């Protein structure tokens, strides 16, 4: 007997209302949950036991949420207090896995939205990793290395007791790169007296890191976008591309687009964007952002000529055929999406987590723009973290070529799984539905197999 659609819709609406009631004010978390629930109607119709066993409600509640005080001393000798978070969301497919974000905007709801997304993303990789996320409202911008180190040491002094290579394995995200991972791992090692390399990923190559992890999210984003193009008989070669952000994901997305023959004409940071019609000069951008930690306006100052910096403004005003939002959540709204559609954009692939608002996604889908959601598109980063864990477990170190090849294969497999799931449900080309349905089904089946947990 099948469950009528209206009963299912009502049940899903009830789940969502409960999420709103139990998590007041956590708007980003609400948004992420609503987006996934919006795809689950047909899945539940086909598998009514997911409703009966209350799998969806269970998934809307993290397994564990940790909030802690992070006191540290700044260079002036003043005591500073930040708040630390780790949301251990789901461990049915493997140890909790997901990055740490250090940014002043981080609240519990931010970490919950990221952790929720991470469950399904990690499931899509097909690798044995559960979902989690963490972070702090600490702002590394303008802080000395010594201050960042003291903060990281204090953060890890509390968090270490929850971590372990079989328990919970953090990595980087906004504001957390190689420098922070080094300080965090150093403190973990010091407290535990164990060289447990697999407890954190994104490590330096000399101390247990994986080749291609730095590049993986950006490269993976472009591998996925390339598959989207190929699927409709197109290619990235010769395309005019805009990439927002200029951090880890953006930089390596720009690098790979260029290798595929596209031209990235604009990049941004939170102060504004630059337009360089000749194509973003990656050596300069890497030096500015990875070494000198400068604002993006310096790019225009140092390049000169026709390169322009637009303070504030909206990078999505720059016409492009392919748009890769790689900065932060809700950076591309309905109005920006309408501008992109008007300017002839035909592929949008989310390198960041949830960068497009629901209104923007609707605009793209109604205009038949190919739209790839972050949980599929940017999964290459966490997938390569899982490859780093494999190398740590086997005391091995793979070549760049081998790791990059595995990354490419994983991204092609995710694309295939998303596309075939969407087709199987009669929704060809709907990447949002395909990613949610495929990711959810993998997690839900594992939960059911393990009983009421
Ligand atoms: N690093 C990773 O492996 C992964 C990162 N992501 C997501 O990718 C996005 C970017 O992360 P990362 O590159 O790692 O961080 P990052 O800290 O290296 O770079 C973030 C970039 O976004 C810019 N940015 C932040 N807020 C902005 C705003 N309001 N407007 C314009 N630009 C803004 C920053 O200036 C910076 O250039 C985030 O959504 C993150 O969750 C997703 C998967 C994996
Ligand atoms: O590499 C990881 O474990 C986490 C990456 C991440 O935070 C993400 O996929 O959003």
UniProtKB/TrEMBL annotation:
Keyword Translocase among record annotations: no
PROSITE patterns registered for this protein in UniProt: GLFV_DEHYDROGENASE
Regions annotated as coiled coil: none
UniProt cross-references to Gene3D superfamilies, sorted A to Z: Glutamate Dehydrogenase, chain A, domain 3, Leucine Dehydrogenase, chain A, domain 1, NAD(P)-binding Rossmann-like Domain
Keyword Cell cycle appears in the UniProt entry: no
InterPro entries referenced in this protein's UniProt entry, alphabetically: Aminoacid_DH-like_N_sf (IPR046346), Glu/Leu/Phe/Val/Trp_DH (IPR006095), Glu/Leu/Phe/Val/Trp_DH_C (IPR006096), Glu/Leu/Phe/Val/Trp_DH_dimer (IPR006097), Glu/Leu/Phe/Val_DH_AS (IPR033524), Glu_DH (IPR014362), Glu_Leu_Phe_Val_DH (IPR050724), NAD(P)-bd_dom_sf (IPR036291)
Keywords in alphabetical order: Oxidoreductase
SMART domains named among the record's database cross-references: ELFV_dehydrog (SM00839)
UniProt domain Glutamate/phenylalanine/leucine/valine/L-tryptophan dehydrogenase C-terminal: residue ranges: 210-451
Membrane-spanning intervals of the chain: none
Quaternary state and interactors: Homohexamer.
Family per similarity comment: Belongs to the Glu/Leu/Phe/Val dehydrogenases family.
Protein name in UniProt: Glutamate dehydrogenase
């Amino acid at each position: 007997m099948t469950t009528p659609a209206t009963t299912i819709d009502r049940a899903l609406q009830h789940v969502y209302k409960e999420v709103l009631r139990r998590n007041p004010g956590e708007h980003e978390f609400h948004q992420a949950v609503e987006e996934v629930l919006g795809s689950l109607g047909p899945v539940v119709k086909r598998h009514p036991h997911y409703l009966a066993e209350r799998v969806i409600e269970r998934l809307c509640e993290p397994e564990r949420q940790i909030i802690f005080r992070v006191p540290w001393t700044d260079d002036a000798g003043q005591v500073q207090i930040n708040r630390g978070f780790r949301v251990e969301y789901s461990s049915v497919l493997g140890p909790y896995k997901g990055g740490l974000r250090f940014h002043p905007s981080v609240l519990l709801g931010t970490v919950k939205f990221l952790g929720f997304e991470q469950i399904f993303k990690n499931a899509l990789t097909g690798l044995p990793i559960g979902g989690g996320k963490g972070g702090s409202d600490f702002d590394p911008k303008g802080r000395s290395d010594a201050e960042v180190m003291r903060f990281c040491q204090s953060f890890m002094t509390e968090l270490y007791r929850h971590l372990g290579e079989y328990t919970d394995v953090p990595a980087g995200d906004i504001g957390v790169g190689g420098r922070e991972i080094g300080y965090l791992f150093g403190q973990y090692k010091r407290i535990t007296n164990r060289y447990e390399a697999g407890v954190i990923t994104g490590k330096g190559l000399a101390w247990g890191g994986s080749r291609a992890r730095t590049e993986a999210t950006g490269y993976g984003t472009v591998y996925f976008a390339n598959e989207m193009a190929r699927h409709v008989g197109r290619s990235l070669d010769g395309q005019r591309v805009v990439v927002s952000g200029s951090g880890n994901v953006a930089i390596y997305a720009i690098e790979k687009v260029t290798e595929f023959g596209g031209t990235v004409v604009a990049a941004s940071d939170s102060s504004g964007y630059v337009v360089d019609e000749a194509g973003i000069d990656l050596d300069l951008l890497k030096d500015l952002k990875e070494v000198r930690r400068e604002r993006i306006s310096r790019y225009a100052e140092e390049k000169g000529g026709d390169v322009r910096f637009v303070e504030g403004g909206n990078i999505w005003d720059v016409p492009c055929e392919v748009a890769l939002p790689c900065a932060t959540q809700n950076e591309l709204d309905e109005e920006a999406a309408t501008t992109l559609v008007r300017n002839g954009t035909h592929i949008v692939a989310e390198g960041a987590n949830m960068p497009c608002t629901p209104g923007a996604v609707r605009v793209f889908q109604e205009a038949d723009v190919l739209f790839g959601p972050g949980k599929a598109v940017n999964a290459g980063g966490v997938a390569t973290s899982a490859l780093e864990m494999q190398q740590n477990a086997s005391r091995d170190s793979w070549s760049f070529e081998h790791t990059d090849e595995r990354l490419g294969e994983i991204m092609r497999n995710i694309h295939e799984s998303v596309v075939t799931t969407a087709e199987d449900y009669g929704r060809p080309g709907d990447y949002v539905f395909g990613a949610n349905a495929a990711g959810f089904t993998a997690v839900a089946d594992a939960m059911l197999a393990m009983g009421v947990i």
